[in-house]
Amino acid sequence: MGDEKTMRLEDLSVAQKAALLSGASEWDSRGSKKADIPSFVMSDGPHGVRRQLGSGDHLGLGSSKPATCFPTAGTVANSWDPALAEAMGEALGREAHDLDVNVLLGPGMNIKRNPLCGRNFEYYSEDPQVAGHMAAGLIKGVQSNGVASCPKHFAVNSQELRRQASNSVVDERTLRELYLTAFEIAVRTARPWAIMSSYNEVNGVYAHENKKLLTEILRDEWGFDGAVISDWGGSNSAVAAVKAGASLEMPSPGYTSVRELVAAVQSGDLSEADLTARAAEVAKVAKRAHVDGVGRDDLLSDDIIKKHHDVARRVAEESIVLLKNDHDVLPLASGTRVAVVGDMARTARYQGSGSSKINATKVENLLDELDKADSGVEVSGFAQGYDRQGATDQGLIDEAVALVSSAATDVAVAVVGLDERSESEGLDRTTMAIPKPQNDLVNALAATGKPIVVVLVAGAPVELPWFDGIDAMLYIGLSGQAGASATSRVLCGKVNPSGHLAETWPLKYEDCPSSQWYPASGRDSIYREGPFVGYRYYETVGVPVRFPFGFGLSYSDFSLADLALDRQGAAFVVTNESDTPGSAVVQLYVHGPRNGVLRPERELKGFIKVALAAHESKKVRIDFDETTFRHFDIDEGRWGIQSGDWTVLVGTDVEHLPLNGQISIDGDDISRPVDPAFGHYLKGDVKHVTDAEVAQLFGHTVTAAVEPTVFGANDPISSWVRSPGWTARTVARFLKKRELKVREKTGSPDLNTLFILNMPPRAMCKMTQGMVDQDMVKAVVAIANGHTFRGIVSLIAGFFRGRGAERRMAKELADM
């Protein structure tokens, strides 16, 4: 490599260029010695490096090298601090470098459309400003190490059910303003070297072959110059992907895609220029993110392990949210005797399940951390309180009540929340409730009359039926391997909590705007709620919530004053009115004119975290940017700015905005009344919109596709339960029973079986390293449609044909 014999990429053969566009293994790209293009290694993940041993797998089932498990994105977002995300990214990038990873697959930054999405813990926020700027911080940090960051999943990936066979149907304005803006902010601000496409279709076109997304918006409009990498098994047609602007499909499909691309160029269906452009994108990442001098068997040094554990603790500390503190129960005073209750206090749950699961270098638990805390707080005892898997056990509750009721206890700290089965890749939650035995426990503890502090562990909102009966609550999310010591330090007052919620917490699931149609069980997931997602819905309609977007308490008291607006932004004074140093999260919202543009009541457009000493005041500023006043004009197909008087509001959450002022904006849109045909959308009442009003929002009639009676290559294997053939029907039913049995037995989801159930047959061609090709997929589809004998014969014949074709292509590429 690198000598005088090196060829230009353009001079490689069609087959050699095509070979660069698919993986060589589960985690490695293909390189070219002839063109001096190195292979590169990819690895999850968004909150820790999952560098797998051996050939590995994409679901986190195999062993991986120890690495720091940082708090998940849904927790880090509560810090509202992009600089903190950047520090975390720097640590992630350093570990990726040391573990010989070139491309880190993260952060996850899809908008949280509904609280039941099983992967919400991997995503930042329901708002694109928070998601975009937090992601930008992480990306900058990762790439400062010479490691590529690959934000995901682009785009509109909002449910796990049928995730590889789901079509996200969303109107253009909502798509651009809500679901794409976070990615736009991250791409424009941090310039990631790669981006991962999502499994789903977007308005009928698979994301990995969606030219509008990948070329017209991502590359031409935003200026992205990196590689688009498929989610694992997320490529549908290799030829269509290359035409659309997708660069690399993962993992290895063997040489099946190479053969398809070569045939398409030979037939004139694909231009060699497009093939060359995609190969150049892969080569660019390979050279940008090439790690030299690091052995693949290396482990992290002891110094890095210790240093990054401290970073993980700091990130967790800044992300913990104080949600209640009646009678100033917290921080716990020196001399307080504390009963620690809850299985998760002894065996921490600190991350979610799936491809992001990290083999942590060290794991803490709250019981030990409180016991050894140098704070004067005394642990009076521990009680398990509940069965981890949700079984009813009154004896555990009685034991906890006795401990808390005893004269030796002053305060109870109860650790409750969601278990390992509840939040996972491949599986959406079925309820916002935490397990009933835990609710029963908290109610029983509250009845003792002792002060009750709840430490809540969950990656997304939950219902809190006992909230009024407790005295204080900390939401620690999924706080990573150092979350326990961070929580102990907040409880004991060594750290002043400064986190604010990056998503709304409804009182009950039925209050959610999309609760009536989420998740979609059929192919089409129609986003009937339009732009009214999260606080945009609750604030517009006036629905009461448990905690508003942006909410968070502190051991300090803050005030805001002296708002001054100009054309560039807003200035104001933040004061710490207390004797305790702390940090305030200040948020800026806008309320736009109602002439001609359908809008939510208010929209976040900026934020800042301000550290203040006791009784200190600071004058701070939040600048406007290109996203502040814009909307996407459907008729013109471009961004527009509406003329008129805009209200700017500043405060500490979406409901508490003590400062407001007006600014007159000279835009480029003429004033006109909002079309009354929007009906219920005019007031955000999305639960009652009619089909005609949905058609008005989309600009055309929207009807969910009828579930097919004949199965195709893109229908999930789970749908085979309706197959006319006994064989396919039996396979689907067996897999469903197996997943449920494993989940009940182990307390964790069966990720491999879930993946297979959600997988369409065409993915077999993409994930078997050439063992299955398109002809064999057609045979599998025949079996699904009841033609068992014919399908099996074709499957066997296709296998032998495919083996021969693979050998011939491997021989052709042997000297690549």
Summarize, please.
The protein has 22 helices and 26 strands. By secondary structure, it is an alpha/beta fold.
Please, could you describe this protein's structure?
- By secondary structure, the protein is of the alpha/beta class.
- It has 4 domains: 9-288, Alpha-Beta Barrel (TIM Barrel); 312-526, Glycoside hydrolase family 3 C-terminal domain (Rossmann fold); 556-674, Immunoglobulin-like (Sandwich); 717-812, no CATH class.
- Helices cover 30% and strands 16% of the residues.
- The chain contains 22 helices and 26 strands.
- It has a 6-stranded mixed beta sheet with strand order 9-14-13-12-10-11. A 4-stranded mixed beta sheet has the order 7-6-4-16, with no helix packed on it. The chain has a 4-stranded antiparallel beta sheet with strand order 21-20-25-26, with no helix packed on it.
- A hairpin with a 2-residue loop joins strand 6 and strand 7 (205-206).
- Helix 4 (128-143) runs parallel beside helix 6 and helix 19 runs antiparallel to helix 20 (751-758).
- The termini are close together.
- The model has no long low-confidence stretch (mean pLDDT 93).
- Keywords: Glycosidase, Hydrolase.
- It comes from Bifidobacterium bombi DSM 19703.
- GO terms for molecular function: beta-glucosidase activity.
- Residues 584-654 form the Fibronectin type III-like domain.
- Belongs to the glycosyl hydrolase 3 family.
